[in-house]
Amino acid sequence: MDQVKIAIDDGHDTMKVCFGFDEANNEYQCVSVKSLAIRGMQQIASLNKEAPVYAADGETFTMVPDNALGRHLDTRFIEYPKSALNRVLVHHALVESGMGGRAVNVVTGLPVDQYYKGGKKNIELINAKIANISKPVNVITKNISLANIVENRVMSEAIAAVFDIVFNGDGSENIETFELISRRPIAVVDMGGKTLDIATIMENIDGIYYDRSGTENIGVLRLKEEVASKLKNNFTLNNEPPSKYVEEAIRTKQYEVFGELHDISELIESVCREYVVAIQNAMLKRIGDGSDLGAVVFVGGGAALLQSVFGSAIFSEIYQGRCIIPNHPQFSNAIGMWKYATFVAVESVKSTHEAEAATVD
């Protein structure tokens, strides 16, 4: 049975999935699935379908629709990469991507500070995450088929984005980017849900400059919480503004209260400016002024958010050198993981087999 190569940027806020490239339409096949679940078997009313329920390691989890007003589990805990919750959310993302009943080869990710430890790969955690994804998940809800994960591997999330910009969707090389990274290091700034990852990539993608890479806990979820707090205070609300509506408010700069729409442009831009300053400080800490870099690549949900609020010009305010923003920055890690699994890893295996054959001869 053919295995589908599928990449999942299994973030704390959203699971970003990539499973192919449609050459005819020049589009990546991507899906985003919110990382929303509650513990236990809960009945959530829906006109369309029953909420999916999964079981793993003796725990039961109900997937929460994106339109739910209720609270959901916070994924920002240290053991998340090797937890039953992470495994269930990965399987749910596979189901939502249409992979139910299919054999899949999966790539997931870890933030830079977890993928590396003391300048070397954190083999213990990487293997623990691989083992976790390999463990079983049971589906409680009827009429749902799980994907069969035949193989899985783990990549560093920010580094994955490099493979997005150096390869095109058909596997051909982006000559301009390859030439750039052959002579100068580049930095990837990955604005995720929980963290801000900065990875300074060595020339020719030979590794990372560890002392100029790292992770800060200033993710998009914290920004959304700050916006929610200000909305609650400004409008003197008792209820917490639901996450879905907060995201909508950031995107549209409007917020509806008691059926009346309010312009909150000043509030949104003020909070986002604070986020930009935090990013600038983190970059200064890790890469200095970046004058010795060939470029800085901005990816992640936070990059897409800032782009929607301020436009692409905001990145030139953050870094005065060459800025690279992929067409879909929120999917860049997932797309890069998919390209690595599809084009790079396959060639590595092929080269190994050819070398072994030559040795035998």
Automatic annotation (TrEMBL):
InterPro entries, per database record: ASKHA_NBD_ParM_R1-like (IPR056367), ATPase_NBD (IPR043129), ParM/StbA_N (IPR009440), ParM_C (IPR048345)
SUPFAM superfamilies: Actin-like ATPase domain
Plasmid segregation protein ParM C-terminal domain: residues covered: 188-338
Superkingdom of source: Bacteria
Plasmid segregation protein ParM/StbA N-terminal domain sequence ranges: 4-164
Gene3D superfamilies, A to Z: 3.30.420.40
Protein name: ParM/StbA family protein
Taxonomic source organism: Undibacterium oligocarboniphilum
